[in-house]
Write a structure and sequence with these properties.
alpha+beta; six-stranded antiparallel β-sheet; two-stranded antiparallel ribbon; 8 strands; about 30% helix; about 25% strand
């Protein structure tokens, strides 16, 4: 067997092991939240989480919330429509002012949990997006939430 073939075989084995590990990541039995108080669980120290409720000075984790006009019900439906149009998504919980969705990566099947809390008094949608496994995410959570914000705002334009 050539050196190239050995390297290819080892690479394929490592990729397979990584993919299997990602597929077997434990699903949290409950994603902690307090929709009544409109607060979400803080981000861990790892860089694979963004939240609108992180301190503003925490540039690694803080991200601006989504704002809206109109009713909370209309904003909720628009948000659900945006999420449903995105690939590899699943709505886990859909309550009055709280939504929990999962997003699964294409190749390795990594699962990210995304939570939304609608604060109608402030006309704001707070959210938290976090990877279940690993430390880094190469900006995937932040980019996804910016994409959701852009789609949400675009859907508001008649």
């Amino acid at each position: 067997m050539s050196a190239f073939s050995k390297k290819l075989l080892i690479s394929a084995g490592l990729l397979s092991a990584m993919a299997l590990t990602a597929c077997t990541a434990a699903t949290p039995t409950i994603v902690e939240r307090n929709a009544v108080a409109k607060t979400l669980q803080p981000c861990p120290d790892s860089p694979n989480c963004v939240s609108t409720q992180a301190p503003r000075e925490d540039a690694q984790h803080y991200i601006e919330p989504i704002t809206y006009t109109g009713s909370a019900a209309d904003a909720r439906q628009r948000l659900l429509d945006v999420i449903a149009a995105m690939p590899r998504t699943k709505i886990v919980t859909d309550e009055d002012l709280y939504i929990h969705a999962t997003f699964t990566s294409l190749i390795f099947r990594f699962v990210d949990d995304v939570q939304f809390v609608i604060d109608d008094a402030a006309k704001t949608i707070h959210f938290r997006s976090a990877s279940r496994v690993g430390r880094g995410d190469m900006g995937v959570n932040r980019n996804r939430m910016e994409e959701i914000r852009a789609r949400f705002n675009q859907a508001a334009v008649p």
